[in-house]
Design a protein that fits this description.
It is built from six helices and seven strands. The chain has helices at residues 13-23, 43-50, 66-79, 96-101, 125-134, 169-193, and strands at residues 2-8, 30-37, 55-57, 84-87, 106-110, 138-145, 155-162. The chain is of the alpha/beta class. The protein has a seven-stranded mixed β-sheet with strand order 3-2-1-4-5-6-7, with helices on one face. It starts with a strand and ends in a 5-residue tail after the last helix. The radius of gyration is 16 Å and the shape is globular. It has a single domain (2-193), classed as Rossmann fold, CATH 3.40.50.170. Bound molecules: glycinamide ribonucleotide. Residues 8, 10-14, 44, 88-89, 109-111, 123-124, 127, 177, 181 line the site of glycinamide ribonucleotide (GAR).
């Protein structure tokens, strides 16, 4: 059984997609052992608790500086003894020590087709705003391994999604989630859990 730790910051619809995929047998050989949020109010924590999953908040606001937060966060991850760490809408820069320690065992979902609309400043709704501003006709989502850069690690899966003429950032975000993120993130976890990659 692959021990999965999921890190979240907000609504947790990607976390929900992972939990649903486990229940439906679309992810096998994996269990979520802990959900961690930097935001105490993240609805994602409620989703996890509702499923009886250990859910913990580690907020930078509770620590005097970044260093102390990083230590506490890494300790919280270590306690779960994960085989895989999934960043499912986690909007915090990971401590470099953690990236080294869990090299090749951290994956992230990004709401665009990397290398487009990624890197510093491209997260959440901002990605979709930039997509609409540029006027591209195709966008999508990417699951990739996390390395020291921002959205620079090896790509695992991508799925394209059409941009439609009347899209607002929110409408587009919803379509990218439904058609791409909630599909490829569980798929990537299942592939890793069953030895098909990494
Ligand atoms: C998702 O769209 C995810 O791809 C994005 O945040 C959203 C979280 O939604 N992540 C990033 O932008 C990371 N750079 P959720 O909490 O409902 O899963």
């Amino acid at each position: 059984m692959l021990r999965v730790c999921v890190c979240v910051s907000g609504g947790g619809t990607n976390l929900q997609a992972i939990m649903d995929a486990i229940d439906a047998g679309r992810i096998t050989n994996a269990q979520i052992v802990r959900v961690i949020s930097n935001n105490k109010l993240a609805f994602a924590l409620e989703r996890a608790k509702g499923k009886g999953i250990d859910a913990v908040a580690v907020s930078p606001k509770d620590y005097a500086d970044r260093e102390l937060f990083n230590e506490a966060f890494l300790q919280c991850v270590d306690e779960a003894a994960p085989d895989l760490i999934v960043l499912a809408g986690f909007l915090v820069v990971l401590p470099p020590m953690m990236i080294q320690k869990y090299d090749g065992r951290i994956i992230n979902i990004h709401p665009a087709l990397i290398p487009s609309f990624c890197g510093k400043g491209y997260y959440g709704l901002r990605v979709h705003e930039a997509v609409l501003e540029r006027g591209v006709k195709i966008t999508g989502a990417t699951v990739h391994f996390v390395d020291e850069g921002t959205d620079t690690g090896p790509i695992i899966l991508q799925k394209a999604v059409e941009v439609l003429p009347d899209d607002t950032p929110k409408v587009l975000q919803q379509r990218v989630m439904e058609q791409a993120e909630w599909v490829i993130l569980p798929q990537a976890i299942n592939m890793i859990a069953n030895g098909q990659i990494g």
